[in-house]
Amino acid sequence: MERRRRRAVQLLEGGQSLAVVAWMVGAAVSAVWQWRKTFRREGAGGLAAKPAPGRPPKLSPQQRQRLPKLLAAGARHYGYPNDLWTTRRIAAVIQQELKVDYHPAQVSRILGDLGWSYQKPERRAVERNQAAIDHWKRYRWVEIKKKHAG
Questions:
Q1: Alpha carbons 11 and 72: distance in angstroms, whole number
Q2: How far apart are CA 52 and CA 41, in angstroms?
Q3: For position 127, what pLDDT does the model report?
Q4: How far, CA to CA in Å, does 97 sit from each of 77, 80, 111?
Q5: Where are the domains of the chain?
Q6: CA–CA separation, 19 and 33 (whole Å)
Q7: CA-to-CA distance for 100 and 106, rounded, in angstroms?
Q8: How many C-alpha atoms does 4 have within 13 Å on its Cβ side?
Q9: Which of 58, 66, 90, 141 is most buried, by the most CB atoms less than 10 A from its CB?
């Protein structure tokens, strides 16, 4: 982005028109006009890339890196009756282990950033097969958990 802005200003200073420069760098004429205005007011430094606005993350990169390992220990490790994670449980573990407060809704965004998918449970059918469910939890869930151990 920064290179494109500098190139646009260079072309403008070389005598090219706004429309031609906009076409050459693949930008809107209004954007090129703003870049020239900024360059004239602030110099080359005004064309530099600026950090994205917004609140900085609460979790540091190191804490974010630890999270998959914490979750790989399983929910039972943290005193829950089963190993299934909910966003509320994950938020509690983040608070307990990393000392950072998150609303459960934000936890699903963090999981997405880590490449994990947040899945809401389906309603239970009356005719469900409890033996098959127990088998899945005992064998299949363990395999899934191993894959995401980090």
A1: 55
A2: 22
A3: 82
A4: 12, 15, 17
A5: 2-47, 61-147
A6: 10
A7: 12
A8: 12
A9: 90
Question: For residue 144, how many C-alpha atoms fall within 13 Å in the half-sphere facing its CB?
Answer: 13
> Mean pLDDT across the stretch 60-73?
92
Summarised one tens digit per residue, pLDDT across range 94-105 is 999 999 999 999
Q: Tell me the CA distances in angstroms from 42 to 5, 60, 111, one per residue in order.
A: 13, 33, 41
Token reading at 45? 């430094």
Tokens 């089963």 belong to 82
What is the pLDDT at residue 150?
A: 60
Residue 18, helix vs strand vs coil: helix
Percentage above 70 pLDDT, the chain: 97
SS3 19: helix
Burial of 150 per CB tally in 10 Å (0-12, 13-18, 19+) = exposed
Work out the burial of residue 55: count CB atoms within 10 Å of its CB; fewer than 13 is exposed, 13-18 middle, 19 or more buried: exposed
Task: List, for residues 17-57, the tens digit of each pLDDT value.
Answer: 999 999 999 999 999 999 999 999 999 888 898 887 888 88
The predicted model scores a pTM of 0.51
For residues 27 and 5, what is the distance between their CA atoms, to the nearest angstrom?
Answer: 9
